[in-house]
Design a protein that fits this description.
Layout: E1 6-11, H1 19-28, E2 32-39, E3 58-60, E4 69-72, H2 76-84, E5 94-100, H3 113-123, E6 127-134, H4 148-162, E7 168-175, E8 185-187, E9 193-203, E10 209-220, H5 227-232, E11 236-242, H6 251-255
Parallel strand pairs: 1-2, 1-5, 2-4, 5-6, 6-7, 8-11
Antiparallel strand pairs: 3-4, 7-11, 9-10
Manganese (II) ion is lined by residues 13-14, 44, 100, 114.
Length: 263
């Protein structure tokens, strides 16, 4: 039996001109039919968003690879929803998001447009995989993305063979230069991330205060088995993430709170 080629949409949260999406699309072309659908500007840290009550404009884009590409004037999860709701006139199998130029680990993931666009894909019955590279605050144009192809093709191969449960994605984080060649993969859980944000207040030329979140980059824990820990030791971190945010372990306790007791 001849296997049908995968129909793949490549998206990101950094915008269609970011170097990471070029590296990802180039890798994806080796295993399927690729269409790029990505925001026309940077939506990093936009979280899981949806355009309600606002039109979306979709423009063909001259992407520097021989694939159809569209830029949209809305966010990353909208790109996945467009693909899932039939914009391309065909069933899309796989949404690949990234490659983000900084890690998306631990508590970053609800902020991350890279991760949430992969989660959005699962809502519309597509496989979602998020890819982020940890280049330690380097500018995206200075990052070496050459390991991308090795990692992306390996992850896709295994996902094809084993399948993922519904509403579940893989959050893949890899170092710019893995400690091993070929890279070593670790299955991880979300670690802790200590944010070192500071609220910066300044005054504008009209004497009105404005605020920025400043401070230093977050610090991740290095515990064994966590995404941040294994990534910091030069491994490729693979974390399964799902849309169910329920704190299941709290349910039995919470039930004993006497919600329906009348004093
Ligand atoms: Mn980003």
């Amino acid at each position: 039996m001849i296997e049908k080629p995968l129909e793949i949409v490549v998206t990101n949260d950094d915008g269609i001109t970011a170097p990471g999406i070029l590296a990802l699309a180039k890798a994806a072309m080796k295993v399927g039919n690729v269409t790029v659908i990505a925001p026309d500007k940077n939506w990093s840290a936009s979280g899981h968003q949806k355009s309600l009550g606002k039109p979306m404009r979709v423009e063909p884009f001259a992407f520097p690879l021989d694939v159809p590409a569209y830029s949209i004037d809305r966010g990353p999860s909208d790109c996945s929803a467009l693909a899932g709701l039939g914009f391309l006139g065909k069933k899309v199998d796989l949404v690949l998001s990234g490659v983000n130029p900084t890690a998306n680990i631990s508590r970053d993931i609800t902020y991350s447009g890279t991760v949430t666009s992969a989660l959005e894909a699962t809502i519309w019955d597509m496989i979602g995989i998020a890819f982020s590279l940890d280049a330690e605050e380097k500018k995206p144009q200075d990052i070496d993305f050459s390991i991308t192809e090795t990692v992306v093709l390996h992850v896709i191969e295994l996902v094809k063979r084993h399948k993922l449960p519904p509403f579940t994605i893989l959050n893949v984080n890899f170092p710019e230069f893995p400690a091993n060649d070929p890279p070593v993969y670790k299955i991880t859980r979300q670690g802790s991330r200590i944010y070192q944000d500071e609220l910066i207040q300044r005054v504008d030329p009209f004497n009105r205060p404005y605020y920025w979140f400043g401070g230093s980059p977050p610090i991740g824990d290095c515990d064994e088995g966590t995404d941040c820990g294994e990534l910091s030791r030069g491994f490729v971190s693979i974390t399964p993430i799902h849309l169910d945010l329920t704190a299941h372990q709290l349910i039995p306790d919470l039930e004993k709170w006497g919600w329906n007791d009348r004093a």
